[in-house]
Amino acid sequence: MKEDLVSAALAEPGMLAQCSLERWDRLIRQGRAARLLGRLAVLLEQAQLLASVPEAPRRHLVAMRLLADQQRIAARREVLLIREAIGRTGVPVILLKGAAYTMAELPVAEGRAFGDIDILVPRVALADVESALMLAGWASIHRDPYDQRYYRQWMHEIPPMQHLRRGTVIDVHHALVPPTARIAADSDAMRSACIPLEGLPGLFVLAPADMVLHSATHLFMEGEFDAGLRDLADLDGLLRHFGRDPAFWTRLGRRAREVGLLRPLFYALRYARESLHTPIPAALMREAEAGAPSAALRPLMDFCFRRALRPKHHTCANAWTSAARWLLYVRGHWLRMPLHLLAVHLARKAFKREESTSSAPEAALRR
Q1: Which residues on adjacent β-strands are paired with residue 172?
Q2: pLDDT value of position 149
Q3: pTM for the whole thing?
Q4: 296 has pLDDT over 90
């Protein structure tokens, strides 16, 4: 396959000291596609290498680092507004993914590109939480009746909500995996072990092992990999940070067994170590092997993940990359719902896509 410069730079920032301008150009393009330029800037700064980067690529790196810093500030402000809106209900709010990393001030949040804000609340409180958010200016993005039913009946979250004035998007989860998923994670056990954020009453984050397991589950059980390498870099950062405590590794393996997430942990450890050289104890790797796919299936999963966990850019793709991403997309849906529901859902999506494509020329003529 073509060279993935971003993974190489994340694993060993020092290699960039020998980069030609041509390779820098390719790296910047790949890094922007992977949403990792801000993270690369942080790593280079920590290694005291940023000042030695040629001026043109350095401008891109610094700009994305500054943008990521601004996004982090905006995310903190948005989280506080969400807490204020939901706080009237008395429902505790567990932050997930980027919002959790930011509010817990974890190193992985530095330079991280930000998207939606994800929260977890008890299922019994969903109606109260949704009403409180609507009163505060958020509204559901998906108005189609089928989409509403898809989320509310089959998924582990309600339809995404967007603020009418600020444009920010929030995903409200009631579990960490869909109720119809083939991997049944114990969301209640993970919720009950959450940790309060100091000085921020009403806000919580998952415990360290659970935070890693949720990140792994989100990446390896979903079907979208546009930001796959960014999410793998999150896992790398979490493992390096929490792994400074030797007891963490023992807790991580034990917890994966307890909550039923040994399979995504296996994938996370395998590809983080392979792509980003994440230091992982051999004992944990042996324990995670219990969650590995069968010997017959493993080559296919390697084929797909080794292509999908790269920047979505033509300079690090080959003739098989699109096929690998498509297979993982179908797999993600297959993991989320039974076959009879999956067939109907994919057929509907294909029909809507075809309808949208065929109506585009007519819409252009009407304009």
Answers
A1: 119
A2: 80
A3: 0.91
A4: yes
Please state, in angstroms and rounded to a whole number, the distance separating the CA atoms of residues 182 and 118.
22
**DSSP-assigned letter for residue 222:** S
In whole angstroms, give the CA distance from residue 114 to residue 98: 7
Query: Given a cut of 50, is residue 10 above it in pLDDT?
Result: yes
User: Is the pLDDT reported for residue 58 higher than 90?
Assistant: yes
| Both tokens assigned to 285 | 């790797």
CB 272 within 8 A of CB 280: yes
Helices 37-46, 55-87: inter-axial angle, 10-degree rounding: 110
CA 140, 141, 145, 146 torsion: positive or negative? negative
Closest CA to 268 of 315, 243, 303, 233: 233
**For the chain, which domains are there?**
5-336 (3.30.460.40)
DSSP 244-291: TSHHHHHHHHHHHHHHT-HHHHHHHHHHHHHHH-----HHHHHHHGGG
Beta-carbon count within 10 A of 241 CB: 16
CA–CA separation, 209 vs 245, rounded Å? 12
Counting every residue written for the chain, the total comes to: 367
